[in-house]
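Q: Sequence in, structure out?
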Amino acid sequence: MNKTLSPSLPRAAMAVPLLLCLGLAACAGSPSRDAAGASTRSATTVFTAQRSTEHRDGDDLLTAGLGLAGLQATVPPGFADPDAATATEARRRAIWANWRGIADLSPGGGYGTLYGDAGAVPGREFHAFATAPGATHPHRVLTQVPDAFDRARRCIVVTASSGSRGIYGSIAVAGAWGLPKGCAVAYTDKGAGTDYFDLDAGIGIAADGTVATDRAASTFAVDAAGVHGVAFKHAHSGDNPEADWGRHVRQAAEFALQALDEAIPDAAPFTFDNTRVIAVGISNGGGAVLRAAEQDDDWLDAVVAGEPNVFVDAPGARTLYDYTTEAAILMPCALLHLQGLPQPPLTAQVAPLWAGRCAVLREAGLVEGDDTAAQARSAHAQLRAGGWTDDALRAGALSVGFDLWRAVAATYASAYGRYGVDAHPCGYHFAAQDADGSARPATAAERAGWWSDGSGIPPGAGVGLIDSRMAGADPTLPGLLCLRALQTGDDAHARRVQAGIAATRAAPPRDGLPVVVVHGADDGLIPMAFSSAPYVAAARAAGRAEVRSWEVANAQHFDGFLMLPDYAARYVPLLPYLYAALDRVDAHLAGGSPLPGDARIQTVPRGAGAVLEAENLMVPTR
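A: Exactly. Output:
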């Protein structure tokens, strides 16, 4: 359906400004209907804790006043009082941290010169909470409305944070493309985020990102008398948020319509029928926008999904939990079979540890061979048989070096099984740690930085992963084997986790919806062979002809790690292709230009010490 992108009449006299509710009072969106009687806004979405803020005169929506130079600074913006950030300080630091976690801002990396935009965008922000049907905890929603909102094209870019990041987690993806073009940008943390809760102090994070004054002011809290440490929403909400990611994206878009009614009342009402909506996200955010694409009404006009964590019932597809738990156990050993691993991790330092993993796996009967080389060959063969490529394995060395596989698996097992803070089936919990790794209460300074600095999955921002099963020559392996058994076993805990995983299965997009999926061929965290490739194949088998695929050679999962010299030399960033895909679908929607075709993009790594050039990227032009 082609949308009318301007309202039939100005409605200054008829517009009812959006009531900004304070505290936790509920505000329900009023549904509107088009001429055919179809609802253009959900009548059941309730937005709570609504507030708005202005960002001008030394502040802005896209960089919080830091500009590109400030985002490139290697030291985060400080807090005047290290124990108590103000809301302005917390926001500025959160924007800095999320930019640097997603984009390559290093000198020579090309951001702001070769691709991307980090110019100041003044405007207003509208914040609230929304709850998916059946959920017990809300997710954050945020709409940024630039002062230069383009009334002639009336556009919303809706997005979901990557990983488990907070509400600004997709600012370098959706905000950087949409805000300079005069679009409103709608965000959701999709039921994850950095609203941590200190079980020892009994306080969490307030709606404005500061440390709450008490439990009642905390946006996320759990009842766990006598339990110590830190709780966080992705692991401990009890809602399995991943099952609702598509609904979260829809609700963020609904909130954007309300925010636009408030921000620009003389152009109201904004509806899905007169406002173009493009969804974009990467990683978990890419999976979320593909789940939104399933919805069978026509509120959404196009989708661009980068390196998506998505699972479909199709040949080759594997769930994130399946290949994560497999990689956590086998990959440290298997990498010893490969040459030319990117650095870090520093091979000379980690090789003895990986060899120790090989030996323990041999004792457990999980690999074959009488020496390290044979055992590594056995582990490598198992991963290759499961669908891993050598390029994905090499890039996966980063996740091994940062112990990311274990952190992801521990968190997702808790979420899929809807376990409480003291009930993880493999004995994991989270807390601040002393230098020797023992748990301790968090300090005020650590709490002050949680919302801004956290990535949503510890370890990080002063919160560590506590493994109660650590023992033996390879102390993390007992816990990892327990996590793997939740995927492969058949006891009550395994069935409980497997049921949660099954609830995340994706369906094909709505018929006729333009979808462009962009993925790095070397992705070592979410290999395209397990995720986007089977998704595209399943969509086409279902007759979804407007699904396109861009496979980017020499691209891995983390643009932010291209600041490491060896990664910059080997890999190209993925963000330029997301922006280019957005440009193409936007032109298609605006003027009927053709959708881009499928592409296997043959990039050219820049090499050691070189500056990224357009010739390295080879961005498709048709």
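The radius of gyration is 23 Å.
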